[in-house]
Specification:
The chain has helices at about 5-35, 40-50, 55-80, 90-105, 110-130, 140-155, 165-175, 190-205, 220-235, 250-265, 265-275, 285-290, 290-310, 335-340, 355-365, 365-385, 395-415, 420-425, 455-465, 470-475, 475-485, 490-500, 500-515, 520-530, 530-555, 565-595, 600-620; strands at about 135-140, 210-215, 240-245, 275-280, 315-320, 350. It is mainly α and about 625 residues long. It has three domains: about 5-130, Phosphoenolpyruvate/pyruvate domain (de novo design (two linked rop proteins), Up-down Bundle); about 135-385, Alpha-Beta Barrel (TIM Barrel); about 395-570, no CATH class. Helix 9 links the parallel strand 2 and strand 3.
Length: about 625
């Protein structure tokens, strides 16, 4: 996101410290009121001398340092000069005095007091630390390659971007093994490279407790990981940070196992990662690239192979699942998703993204948050101790057979049909999504370009708004049709019974088909399309959606969608009367918005109303993407 600059990153780190200091101050004030006793251990007396109220003296010093820390962070956020003298920066600066008080109280026989609010504060201090949160950093692989290339070019070592992958790896590992600085003193990098290096410098100034992972989006090669480590070291990083490749497209997912194996082969890298590796699996872009069915199968196979390779090199692998809220981006019930992962891939650790409206729905109230975390925890324990069975070889062959057909069918429409992009632009509110404070910011990775440059959230969001839900079923319709003609439905039912992965996929497909509405999709086309070819494409897509619903009902041997999910079906029936009028309003507002050409007072009114309909539909559908 070009709006997330190094200044924004620094400000977020400082805001975390400001808020943590403010919260801990309240704890310390309460503890000072409670811990007025004079009995103290020799260890504590050595620290405070003959003070009449030794605990209050220690806490008063902590309070003073917390106030300084809060003022320092606030000044940094406001961009004014900040005095860092006496602030609390390392976690131990804060926890050590509290633990000293705890040990003293226990030694003096005051255990019940030690195990009261003081212990609560110590637990909070260890849980949240002084940074309050662990911040992930994320940047695209090409930006790091560009930064290394400019350095190499300035030093006269060649054209890094034209080097082969093996040459890049050889150069990066050689530099990482050495100790000489690579960044020249008088070097003036380009603006984009300066921004990457400035962010690395901000990261290098933090404590380990302030940092999560450095995620490399659009990663595809081992050099993508090594270049980040080199850039961080050049910026002054003193400790190893988790560097996490995010494999997103279909080709990148297929190449991920070989990339990680090449990294594990480098003894320097194995020492660096200390036997632990995190790899992020991209659900959004792989689905946009290959269709939902092919993407799900590619993700499953990539996880299997990544797990096997990590075991070969005795590396503990944590898979980080970049799921969104919608089925088209890997969404769905979290416990079902975890229990349908490949056997062995959930090995006591699991990481997942929660995005947008799903954070509010799952964690917006304390009881909901506890329930959501319980579902996650129990599913991770179950998947670790009682993993699902390996799929049968014939099931794998059937998945390959299905996905061959779904991939070709999906790309024939999305990539090969010249009418598809104009249809998408005209029949959905895609062009207006950038005005709404929801989803990816900005809506495009590049200002120009077609569907391939559109971020995955707006891609899903746009289709959800007009109820065609295309990314979640396109391709699956042809695969199910072919399976029915080839008399494979009995085998698919067998796969549903014995393979949690396939059962979950079919159930998620059913859920998204239940959210689709042919009548509303048709109304958008009638209101917004005036080209016969585009209308013909829309008619074809709606007919394909109808056939997909029929084939799914045949597969599940049901007469209606969601027969086995009465609670969800009832929820949909309750919400539809509220969302349906918004769809009809939105189609009309889109038409007026385009006809007015973006001028005049009426235009502002139309745009405001359009935003309301988009937000309302997203809330009603429980999906922004």
């Amino acid at each position: 996101n070009p709006n997330v600059t190094h200044q924004v990153t620094r400000k977020v780190f400082l805001l975390g410290r400001w808020m943590a200091a403010d919260l801990y101050l309240r704890d310390i004030q309460a503890l000072r009121a409670e811990l007025s006793m004079w009995q103290a251990s020799d260890e504590l007396r050595e620290r405070v001398g003959d003070a009449r109220e030794p605990y209050r003296q220690v806490l008063a010093e902590l309070r003073e340092r917390l106030v300084k820390t809060r003022d320092w962070a606030e000044a940094g956020v406001n961009g004014t000069a900040a005095d860092a003298t006496g602030i609390l920066f390392e976690n131990e600066d804060f926890t050590a005095p509290l633990e000293l008080c705890y040990r003293s109280l226990v030694e003096c026989g005051l255990e019940s007091i030690a195990n009261g609010p003081l212990l609560d504060t110590i637990r909070r201090a260890h849980t949240f630390g002084l940074p309050l949160i662990r911040l992930d950093i994320r940047q695209e692989a090409s930006r790091h390659a560009e930064a290394v290339a400019e350095m190499v070019d300035y030093l006269g070592l060649g054209d890094y971007l034209s080097w082969s992958e093996s040459e890049r790896q050889e150069f990066l590992v050689k530099e990482l093994r050495g100790r000489r600085p690579l960044v020249p003193r008088n070097w003036e990098p380009s603006e984009s490279v300066r921004e990457v290096l400035a962010t690395c410098e901000v990261v290098a100034q933090q404590t380990p407790q302030a940092l999560g992972s450095y995620v490399i989006s659009m990663a595809s090669k081992p050099s993508d990981v090594l270049s980040v480590i080199l850039l961080l070291r050049e910026s002054g990083m003193k400790f190893p940070m988790r560097v996490v490749p995010l494999f997103e497209t279909l080709d990148d997912l297929k190449g991920a196992p070989d990339s990680m194996a090449a990294l594990y082969e480098v003894d320097w890298y194995r020492d660096y990662c200390q036997g632990r590796q995190e790899v992020m699996i991209g659900y959004s872009d792989s689905s946009k690239d290959a269709g939902q069915l092919m993407a799900a199968w590619a993700q499953y196979q990539a996880q299997e192979q990544l797990t096997r390779i990590a075991n070969q090199y005795d590396v503990h692998l944590t898979l980080f699942h970049g799921r969104g809220g919608t089925v088209g981006r890997g969404g769905g019930p979290a416990n079902r998703a975890i229990l349908s992962q490949p056997p062995g891939s959930v090995n006591g650790s699991f990481r997942i993204t929660e995005q947008g409206e799903m954070i509010r729905f799952k964690f917006g109230l304390p009881d909901l948050a506890v329930q959501s975390l319980t579902l996650y925890t129990t599913a991770v324990i179950e998947a670790t101790l009682a993993p699902p069975p390996e799929p049968e070889p014939e099931w794998r062959a059937t998945m390959d057979w299905l996905t061959d057909r779904s991939l070709k069918s999906y790309r024939d429409v999305v990539r090969e049909n010249p009418d598809f992009v104009p249809y998408f632009r005209q029949v959905t509110p895609e062009q207006a999504l950038g005005k709404l404070a929801l989803g990816s910011r900005p809506a495009r990775r590049k200002a120009t370009g077609g569907v391939e440059s559109l971020r995955a959230i707006p891609w899903i969001f746009a289709w959800t708004q007009m109820r065609l839900m295309l990314p979640s079923w396109l391709g699956s319709d042809v695969a199910l049709e072919a399976a029915a003609r080839d008399n494979r439905l009995p085998q698919l039912r067998e796969m549903m019974k014995g393979w949690p992965f396939f059962r979950t996929y079919v159930d998620m497909l059913e859920m998204v088909l239940a959210k689709s509405d042919l009548r509303i999709a048709s109304y958008y086309e009638q209101t917004l399309l005036d080209d016969d070819k585009l209308q013909a494409l829309g008619t074809d897509l709606r007919e394909r959606l109808q056939r997909c619903i029929q084939r799914l009902l045949e597969l599940k041997e049901q007469s209606a969608l969601l027969e086995g999910e009465p609670v969800f079906a009832h929820s949909m029936r309750v919400r539809n009367p509220y969302t349906d009028p918004l769809h009809y309003l939105q189609a009309e507002l889109l038409r007026r918005n385009r006809e007015s050409g973006g001028k005049g007072d009426v235009q502002d009114l139309v745009e405001r109303a359009l935003k309301v309909t988009m937000a309302g539909i997203a809330a009603g559908m429980r999906n922004t993407g």
